[in-house]
Write a structure and sequence with these properties.
The protein is of the alpha/beta class. The chain has a single domain, classed as Oxidized Rhodanese, domain 1 (3-Layer(aba) Sandwich). The chain contains 4 helices and 4 strands, in the order βαβαβαβα. The protein has a 4-stranded parallel beta sheet with strand order 2-1-3-4, covered by helices on one side. The radius of gyration is 13 Å and the shape is globular.
């Protein structure tokens, strides 16, 4: 029996931020080119959008919803909250 596919992690931070800390298997779609990149995504998949503190990812999630995506979540607190609450070994900046 197979379970549902895990959500696609979309990281909208700049390349220099990704080098410092990132989540495994996340797809890097920088916010400055995000609006063009979204067109190629599967509208039926589940997405979790990530940035540093959750502000840029909220903007990206809102844009996706406006484009007809229905299964979109924003990682509240961003990768900084992840580093504090889930993986303290992750570098913070």
């Amino acid at each position: 029996m197979q379970g549902q596919a895990p959500p696609v992690l979309l990281d909208v931070r700049a390349a220099e931020e990704i080098v410092i800390a990132s989540l495994p298997e996340s797809l890097h779609l920088p916010l400055d080119s995000f609006r063009l990149s979204v067109k190629a995504l599967d509208r039926h998949a589940d997405y979790v959008i990530v940035c540093h503190h959750g502000i840029r990812s909220a903007e990206a999630a809102t844009f996706m919803i406006e484009q007809g995506f229905t299964r979109v979540s924003n990682l509240l607190g961003g990768i900084d909250a992840w580093a504090c609450e889930v993986d303290p070994s992750m570098p913070r900046y």
